From TrEMBL:
<dbReference type="InterPro" id="IPR005625">
    <property type="entry name" value="PepSY-ass_TM"/>
</dbReference>
<keyword id="KW-1133">Transmembrane helix</keyword>
<keyword id="KW-0812">Transmembrane</keyword>
<feature type="transmembrane region" description="Helical">
    <location>
        <begin position="199"/>
        <end position="221"/>
    </location>
</feature>
<keyword id="KW-0472">Membrane</keyword>
<protein>
    <submittedName>
        <fullName>Uncharacterized iron-regulated membrane protein</fullName>
    </submittedName>
</protein>
<dbReference type="Pfam" id="PF03929">
    <property type="entry name" value="PepSY_TM"/>
</dbReference>
<feature type="transmembrane region" description="Helical">
    <location>
        <begin position="29"/>
        <end position="52"/>
    </location>
</feature>
<feature type="transmembrane region" description="Helical">
    <location>
        <begin position="385"/>
        <end position="408"/>
    </location>
</feature>
<feature type="transmembrane region" description="Helical">
    <location>
        <begin position="157"/>
        <end position="179"/>
    </location>
</feature>
<feature type="transmembrane region" description="Helical">
    <location>
        <begin position="431"/>
        <end position="464"/>
    </location>
</feature>
Length: 472
């Protein structure tokens, strides 16, 4: 199979290989034009997010407090937070340990504040408007390019296109760097530090890309699982925990995603699209003490009784049919162990447990994402922080090396892009065709992007000579 200009016959032998090499190089180049700005943006925002989530959290949850005997009742702590912010408490986040404060989300009109409270004396240690953090800003840039409302879809799509084309960059990059024509496996794995000029930058780009290819694919796939098309429409929809597993429990029209209050998602990926249960049916299993008030203190006591230790979260019921939700998951920075993730719903009237979902209940894809998302976010410990920041720095270096290589290859004063030449004949072996078809079917945005670039290269550039010269 081949893409052939009129009047030319297929070439064979080494010419066939060289022609395919130049075609792949050209695809690699054009994909890089779109992806490199996103690599710079996503790497920088990734470093910011990892730093403020794992090293210097901004809501005050890691502030030191001095233990002073027994802690105040959790309701007293909540009352202190509500009085300070002048609103209504809607969420409680237990301290990491005896020397850390508790956090309370306090709704104030249409907004909310996160208040850090000393659990021993009720003193407010920090008061922050929800979402008014560097991590939130970086996350909003990282996922939607700061777009809101209807435009958020387009920001998300632009990032998804970049991540999809980055998969193409990995595949084409490995093909281009594969040993051939005197180049050895050592050249692919060990940088030539003695080289000078463009040869040095090419060696650096090639070797770093080779070593990072596997881990980069993992990060791209885990990131795409959040994206609107491949993630939300395909993978997540197929892998969501089925609410039908909850026996005879009435379901709400609201999903678990309704508990995500800002751009930073805190609800487990496998549950986001799962409907919430409803209160008031008398269904469920034994929970809080019968006849006692089902309030924050009772729900926290139930959580402790069921094995929730250290940091966990309690979301208050939303509306008359809402439920108390007790949760601990690693993507919310509650723990560094994804296998301890657990979400439990309690009827706000009877105190009965309506649903109890843990890591073991997730689908295989749900389990993979339960581990993959905190790993992607750098939340699984210091080693994960070092890994992620190191990866971001190396990706910045790869991108810079690619730009330097292009600049040094570009003819001085050419006034054009100086893209790799487009062969008149591009031989496509069955293997190449099947790989392209498989990637396009597995990642629809990638397939459509490849089709758009191919049509632009073969049709538009051919029909507009000035544009062809500028981009050639």
């Amino acid at each position: 199979m081949s893409i052939q200009s009129p009047g030319l016959a297929p070439a064979g032998g080494q010419g066939r290989i060289n022609t395919l090499y130049f075609a792949v190089w050209r695809w690699h180049f054009y994909a890089g034009l779109y992806v490199i700005p996103f690599v710079l943006l996503l790497s920088i925002t990734g470093i910011v997010m990892v730093w403020f989530s794992a090293i210097a959290p901004e809501y005050g949850e890691r502030l030191p407090v001095m233990p002073q005997g027994a802690a105040l009742a959790v309701q007293a702590q909540a009352d202190a937070a509500a009085a300070h912010a002048g609103g209504t408490v809607t969420q409680y986040i237990a301290p990491y340990g005896a020397e850390n404060p508790a956090l309370f989300r306090v709704a104030v009109g249409d907004a909310a504040r996160i208040v850090a409270v000393n659990p021993y004396d009720g003193a407010v240690l920090r008061d922050t408007a929800e979402g008014d953090t560097w991590e939130e800003l970086a996350d909003h840039l990282h996922g939607e390019l700061m777009q809101t409302g209807a435009a958020k879809v387009w920001g998300d799509l632009a990032v998804e296109i970049a991540a999809s084309l980055a998969l193409l960059l990995v595949a084409t990059g490995l093909y281009l760097s594969w040993p051939r024509n005197g180049r050895t496996l050592r050249d692919m794995l060990v940088p030539d530090l003695a080289a000078r000029g463009r040869a040095f930058w090419k060696s650096l780009h090639l070797v770093l890309g080779t070593w990072l290819s596997v881990i980069l694919v993992f990060f791209l796939l885990s990131g795409l699982s959040w994206a609107g098309v491949w993630g939300g429409t395909f993978v997540q929809a197929w892998s969501t925990f089925p609410a039908e597993k909850w026996d005879a429990v009435p379901l709400s029209d609201a999903t678990h995603a309704s508990m995500n209050h800002t751009a930073i998602a805190t609800v487990p990926w496998a549950l986001e699209q799962t409907p919430m249960p409803e209160s008031g049916s008398g269904a469920g299993s034994a929970g809080t003490a019968p006849g006692a008030a089902v309030d924050l203190s009772a729900v926290v006591a139930l959580a402790r009784e069921l094995g929730f230790d250290a940091r966990f979260q309690v979301n208050f019921p939303q509306g008359e049919s809402g439920v108390w939700t007790i949760s601990r998951d690693s993507m919310s920075n509650d723990s560094t162990d994804p296998t301890s993730d657990r979400t439990l719903h309690v009827d706000q009237y009877s105190g009965r447990i309506l649903a109890d979902v843990g890591f073991a209940d997730y689908s295989p894809a749900g389990k993979a994402m339960a581990v993959g998302i905190p790993l992607h976010m750098g939340l699984m410990g210091l080693w994960n922080v070092v890994l992620n920041i190191g990866l971001c720095v190396l990706l910045l270096l790869i991108a810079v090396a690619g730009v330097v290589m292009w600049w040094m290859r570009r003819p001085a004063g050419a006034g054009r892009l100086a893209a790799p030449p487009r062969p008149e004949l591009v031989p496509l072996t069955k293997g190449v065709a099947l790989i392209g078809l498989g990637l396009g079917m597995a990642f629809p945005v990638l397939g459509l992007s490849l089709l758009a670039v191919l049509l632009f290269d073969l049709v538009v550039l051919g029909a507009v000579p000035p544009l062809k010269r500028a981009l050639s």
